[in-house]
Design brief:
The model has no long low-confidence stretch (mean pLDDT about 90). Strand 1 and strand 2 form a beta hairpin. It contains three helices and two strands, in the order H-H-H-E-E. With about 90 residues, the chain is α+β, with helices and mostly antiparallel strands. Helices cover about 30% and strands about 25% of the residues. A two-stranded antiparallel sheet has the order 1-2.
C-alpha cells in the first residue's frame, strides 16, 4: 500500500499535486524520512534539521485531508488534520 501511495515519491518521482505531496510528507514523518521532508520543504521556512530520531518521537495516528484546492499551475491549498501522540507509552 505504501508503494502505491507514497513510496514512489519518497524514491524520487515528483508528486503530481499538492494533496499527493501532503500524503507523502505525512508518511515520511511516520517513516522518519528526514531527507525527503527537508527536500520537499520550501527553503524560506525549512529548518536545518528535524531531529526525527529524538528519544520522544511522536506516535502518528492518522491523516485526514479535508480539502485540496489548486490555486494555479504551481500552487495549491491543502487543508488537513494530522493526528499524533507525544510522550505516550507505545
Amino acid at each position: 500500500m505504501l508503494e502505491a501511495c507514497c513510496g514512489r515519491f519518497h524514491a524520487g518521482a515528483p508528486a503530481p499535486d499538492a494533496e499527493a505531496l501532503m500524503r507523502s510528507r505525512y508518511s515520511a514523518y511516520v517513516l522518519g524520512l528526514e531527507g525527503y521532508l527537508l527536500a520537499t520543504w520550501h527553503p524560506a521556512t525549512r529548518p536545518a534539521a528535524l531531529e526525527l530520531n529524538a528519544t520522544s518521537r511522536p506516535q502518528w495516528l492518522g491523516l485526514a485531508v479535508k480539502s485540496h484546492m489548486p490555486l494555479d499551475a504551481r500552487q495549491a491549498t491543502v487543508e488537513f488534520v494530522a493526528r499524533y501522540k507525544i510522550n505516550e507509552a507505545v
